[in-house]
Specification:
Strand content: 15-25%
Number of strands: 7
Strand order of the largest sheet: 3-2-1-4-5-6-7
Order of helices and strands: EHEHEHEHEHEHHHE
Helix content: 40-55%
Protein backbone atom coordinates (compact mmCIF):
# COMPACT_ATOMS: atom_id res chain seq x y z
CA UNK A 1 0.00 0.00 0.00
CA UNK A 2 1.31 3.45 -0.90
CA UNK A 3 1.93 6.05 1.75
CA UNK A 4 2.01 3.88 4.88
CA UNK A 5 5.75 3.45 5.37
CA UNK A 6 6.74 5.20 8.58
CA UNK A 7 3.18 6.22 9.52
CA UNK A 8 1.91 5.88 13.09
CA UNK A 9 -1.43 4.15 13.61
CA UNK A 10 -3.70 3.53 16.59
CA UNK A 11 -6.02 0.51 16.39
CA UNK A 12 -8.62 -0.09 19.09
CA UNK A 13 -10.05 -3.55 19.73
CA UNK A 14 -6.81 -4.96 18.34
CA UNK A 15 -6.52 -8.18 20.36
CA UNK A 16 -8.40 -10.44 17.95
CA UNK A 17 -10.62 -10.66 14.90
CA UNK A 18 -10.85 -7.69 12.55
CA UNK A 19 -8.80 -5.35 14.73
CA UNK A 20 -5.88 -7.76 15.00
CA UNK A 21 -5.78 -8.28 11.24
CA UNK A 22 -5.93 -4.54 10.58
CA UNK A 23 -3.01 -4.02 12.95
CA UNK A 24 -1.03 -6.81 11.30
CA UNK A 25 -1.63 -5.49 7.77
CA UNK A 26 -0.64 -1.98 8.82
CA UNK A 27 2.59 -3.41 10.20
CA UNK A 28 3.26 -5.30 6.99
CA UNK A 29 2.73 -2.06 5.06
CA UNK A 30 5.41 -0.32 7.12
CA UNK A 31 3.42 1.53 9.78
CA UNK A 32 4.14 1.58 13.50
CA UNK A 33 1.09 0.54 15.52
CA UNK A 34 -0.16 1.36 18.98
CA UNK A 35 -2.68 -1.39 19.72
CA UNK A 36 -5.30 -1.00 22.42
CA UNK A 37 -7.80 -3.46 23.88
CA UNK A 38 -9.55 -4.24 27.15
CA UNK A 39 -8.44 -7.88 26.66
CA UNK A 40 -4.80 -7.13 27.49
CA UNK A 41 -3.68 -10.74 27.87
CA UNK A 42 -4.95 -11.63 24.40
CA UNK A 43 -3.33 -8.47 23.04
CA UNK A 44 -0.03 -9.40 24.64
CA UNK A 45 -0.25 -12.96 23.32
CA UNK A 46 -0.75 -11.67 19.77
CA UNK A 47 1.62 -8.71 19.68
CA UNK A 48 3.85 -8.84 22.73
CA UNK A 49 7.46 -8.54 21.58
CA UNK A 50 6.55 -7.69 17.99
CA UNK A 51 8.72 -4.89 16.65
CA UNK A 52 6.93 -1.67 15.74
CA UNK A 53 3.97 -2.50 18.02
CA UNK A 54 3.23 -1.02 21.39
CA UNK A 55 0.34 -2.54 23.31
CA UNK A 56 -1.85 -0.78 25.83
CA UNK A 57 -4.74 -1.80 28.04
CA UNK A 58 -7.67 0.35 26.94
CA UNK A 59 -11.24 0.22 28.19
CA UNK A 60 -12.57 2.53 25.48
CA UNK A 61 -15.86 3.04 27.31
CA UNK A 62 -13.88 5.44 29.48
CA UNK A 63 -12.94 8.81 28.04
CA UNK A 64 -9.79 8.95 30.15
CA UNK A 65 -8.47 5.66 28.76
CA UNK A 66 -9.11 6.79 25.18
CA UNK A 67 -7.20 9.97 25.88
CA UNK A 68 -4.40 7.97 27.51
CA UNK A 69 -4.15 5.69 24.46
CA UNK A 70 -3.81 8.67 22.14
CA UNK A 71 -1.31 10.33 24.46
CA UNK A 72 0.79 7.15 24.58
CA UNK A 73 1.06 7.10 20.79
CA UNK A 74 2.02 10.78 20.69
CA UNK A 75 4.57 10.34 23.51
CA UNK A 76 6.16 7.38 21.73
CA UNK A 77 6.16 8.69 18.18
CA UNK A 78 5.41 12.39 18.33
CA UNK A 79 2.33 12.08 16.14
CA UNK A 80 -0.63 9.98 14.98
CA UNK A 81 -1.31 9.59 11.26
CA UNK A 82 -3.98 6.86 11.29
CA UNK A 83 -6.79 6.00 13.68
CA UNK A 84 -8.86 2.84 13.31
CA UNK A 85 -11.86 2.79 15.64
CA UNK A 86 -12.54 -0.94 15.67
CA UNK A 87 -13.49 -1.69 19.29
CA UNK A 88 -17.04 -2.94 19.53
CA UNK A 89 -19.48 -5.35 21.13
CA UNK A 90 -22.80 -6.91 20.16
CA UNK A 91 -25.53 -7.37 22.76
CA UNK A 92 -28.84 -8.79 21.53
CA UNK A 93 -32.23 -7.87 22.99
CA UNK A 94 -35.64 -6.83 21.76
CA UNK A 95 -36.51 -3.16 22.29
CA UNK A 96 -38.54 -3.73 25.48
CA UNK A 97 -35.86 -6.06 26.88
CA UNK A 98 -33.05 -3.58 26.26
CA UNK A 99 -32.02 -2.43 29.73
CA UNK A 100 -30.40 0.91 30.50
CA UNK A 101 -27.22 -0.97 31.37
CA UNK A 102 -27.13 -2.80 28.03
CA UNK A 103 -27.88 0.40 26.11
CA UNK A 104 -25.16 2.39 27.89
CA UNK A 105 -22.58 -0.38 27.53
CA UNK A 106 -23.11 -0.77 23.78
CA UNK A 107 -23.29 2.96 23.02
CA UNK A 108 -20.21 3.75 25.09
CA UNK A 109 -18.15 0.91 23.63
CA UNK A 110 -19.16 1.27 20.00
CA UNK A 111 -19.94 4.95 19.49
CA UNK A 112 -18.68 7.16 22.29
CA UNK A 113 -15.23 5.54 22.11
CA UNK A 114 -14.86 6.50 18.44
CA UNK A 115 -15.76 10.09 19.33
CA UNK A 116 -13.32 10.18 22.25
CA UNK A 117 -10.50 8.72 20.16
CA UNK A 118 -11.07 11.02 17.19
CA UNK A 119 -11.25 14.10 19.40
CA UNK A 120 -7.97 13.09 21.00
CA UNK A 121 -5.96 12.59 17.78
CA UNK A 122 -7.33 15.29 15.47
CA UNK A 123 -5.09 18.07 16.88
CA UNK A 124 -1.89 16.14 16.12
CA UNK A 125 -3.19 15.12 12.69
CA UNK A 126 -4.05 18.73 11.91
CA UNK A 127 -0.63 19.91 13.05
CA UNK A 128 1.07 17.44 10.72
CA UNK A 129 -1.05 18.35 7.72
CA UNK A 130 -3.50 15.46 7.57
CA UNK A 131 -4.44 11.94 8.53
CA UNK A 132 -6.93 9.14 8.05
CA UNK A 133 -9.64 7.85 10.38
CA UNK A 134 -11.48 4.60 9.71
CA UNK A 135 -14.54 3.74 11.80
CA UNK A 136 -15.54 0.07 11.75
CA UNK A 137 -19.33 0.25 11.72
CA UNK A 138 -21.64 -2.52 10.48
CA UNK A 139 -24.14 -3.39 7.80
CA UNK A 140 -26.62 -2.66 10.60
CA UNK A 141 -25.66 1.01 10.20
CA UNK A 142 -27.48 1.10 6.87
CA UNK A 143 -30.21 -1.52 7.28
CA UNK A 144 -32.25 -2.94 10.16
CA UNK A 145 -32.05 -6.22 12.03
CA UNK A 146 -33.92 -7.90 14.87
CA UNK A 147 -32.87 -7.71 18.52
CA UNK A 148 -30.21 -5.10 17.82
CA UNK A 149 -31.74 -1.81 18.96
CA UNK A 150 -28.66 -0.66 20.85
CA UNK A 151 -26.17 -2.11 18.37
CA UNK A 152 -27.99 -0.62 15.37
CA UNK A 153 -28.16 2.75 17.08
CA UNK A 154 -24.47 2.69 17.87
CA UNK A 155 -23.38 1.70 14.37
CA UNK A 156 -25.87 4.02 12.66
CA UNK A 157 -24.54 6.80 14.86
CA UNK A 158 -21.01 5.92 13.82
CA UNK A 159 -21.95 6.22 10.13
CA UNK A 160 -23.63 9.59 10.74
CA UNK A 161 -20.68 10.81 12.78
CA UNK A 162 -18.34 9.71 9.99
CA UNK A 163 -20.12 11.96 7.49
CA UNK A 164 -20.03 14.98 9.78
CA UNK A 165 -16.40 14.47 10.74
CA UNK A 166 -15.46 14.05 7.08
CA UNK A 167 -16.99 17.42 6.24
CA UNK A 168 -15.52 19.22 9.23
CA UNK A 169 -12.02 17.83 8.84
CA UNK A 170 -11.64 17.92 5.06
CA UNK A 171 -10.03 21.40 5.13
CA UNK A 172 -7.34 19.87 7.37
CA UNK A 173 -6.71 17.02 4.91
CA UNK A 174 -8.05 14.51 7.44
CA UNK A 175 -10.10 11.84 5.71
CA UNK A 176 -12.81 9.97 7.63
CA UNK A 177 -14.51 6.83 6.33
CA UNK A 178 -16.50 3.92 7.74
CA UNK A 179 -16.62 0.22 6.95
CA UNK A 180 -19.91 -1.67 7.17
CA UNK A 181 -19.19 -5.41 7.40
CA UNK A 182 -21.86 -8.06 7.17
CA UNK A 183 -21.35 -11.29 9.10
CA UNK A 184 -17.66 -11.92 9.68
CA UNK A 185 -15.91 -15.11 10.79
CA UNK A 186 -14.50 -13.77 14.06
CA UNK A 187 -14.62 -14.68 17.77
CA UNK A 188 -17.65 -12.35 18.09
CA UNK A 189 -19.55 -14.45 15.56
CA UNK A 190 -18.39 -17.64 17.28
CA UNK A 191 -19.82 -16.30 20.55
CA UNK A 192 -23.16 -15.67 18.87
CA UNK A 193 -23.27 -19.15 17.31
CA UNK A 194 -22.42 -20.78 20.63
CA UNK A 195 -25.58 -19.28 22.13
CA UNK A 196 -28.08 -20.50 19.51
CA UNK A 197 -29.89 -23.84 19.47
CA UNK A 198 -28.63 -24.99 16.06
CA UNK A 199 -25.30 -23.37 15.11
CA UNK A 200 -25.06 -25.25 11.81
CA UNK A 201 -28.52 -24.14 10.62
CA UNK A 202 -27.86 -20.60 11.82
CA UNK A 203 -24.59 -20.51 9.88
CA UNK A 204 -26.38 -21.66 6.74
CA UNK A 205 -28.98 -18.93 7.27
CA UNK A 206 -26.28 -16.28 7.68
CA UNK A 207 -24.45 -17.44 4.55
CA UNK A 208 -27.70 -17.31 2.56
CA UNK A 209 -28.10 -13.62 3.42
CA UNK A 210 -24.92 -12.81 1.49
CA UNK A 211 -25.35 -13.01 -2.31
CA UNK A 212 -21.69 -13.96 -2.80
CA UNK A 213 -22.42 -17.18 -0.94
CA UNK A 214 -20.21 -16.92 2.12
CA UNK A 215 -19.58 -14.80 5.19
CA UNK A 216 -16.59 -12.49 5.35
CA UNK A 217 -13.18 -13.24 6.74
CA UNK A 218 -11.40 -10.76 8.97
CA UNK A 219 -9.02 -10.18 6.06
CA UNK A 220 -11.89 -9.06 3.81
CA UNK A 221 -12.53 -6.18 6.18
CA UNK A 222 -8.89 -5.52 7.11
CA UNK A 223 -7.77 -5.08 3.49
CA UNK A 224 -10.51 -2.48 2.97
CA UNK A 225 -9.36 -0.64 6.10
CA UNK A 226 -5.78 -0.73 4.87
CA UNK A 227 -6.82 0.76 1.52
CA UNK A 228 -8.79 3.58 3.15
CA UNK A 229 -5.83 4.53 5.37
CA UNK A 230 -3.41 4.60 2.43
CA UNK A 231 -2.56 7.29 -0.12
CA UNK A 232 -4.33 5.13 -2.72
CA UNK A 233 -7.58 6.41 -1.15
CA UNK A 234 -6.44 10.03 -0.94
CA UNK A 235 -9.63 11.35 -2.61
CA UNK A 236 -12.10 9.25 -0.62
CA UNK A 237 -13.80 10.64 2.47
CA UNK A 238 -17.22 10.45 4.11
CA UNK A 239 -17.96 6.97 2.74
CA UNK A 240 -19.70 4.12 4.60
CA UNK A 241 -18.49 1.15 2.57
CA UNK A 242 -20.40 -2.16 2.78
CA UNK A 243 -18.08 -5.16 3.11
CA UNK A 244 -20.90 -7.65 3.03
CA UNK A 245 -20.90 -9.78 -0.10
CA UNK A 246 -23.94 -7.86 -1.37
CA UNK A 247 -26.08 -8.26 1.74
CA UNK A 248 -27.01 -4.57 1.71
CA UNK A 249 -28.84 -5.18 -1.60
CA UNK A 250 -31.73 -6.57 0.37
CA UNK A 251 -31.57 -10.35 0.47
Amino acid sequence: MEGLEGKVAIVTGAAMGIGARIAELLLQAGASVVAGDIAYEALDERFGGVRSVRIRHADVRRRSECEDLAAAAIDLHGRVDILVNNAGITRRALLEDTTDELWDNVLQTNLASAFYMARSVVPTMRARGGGAIVNVASINAIRGNLELTAYGASKGGMAGMTRVMAMELAPDNIRVNALCPGTVDTPMNDEYLAAVEDPEATTEMLVAKHPLGRIATADDVAWAALFLTSDMASFITGVSLPIDGGRHLGR
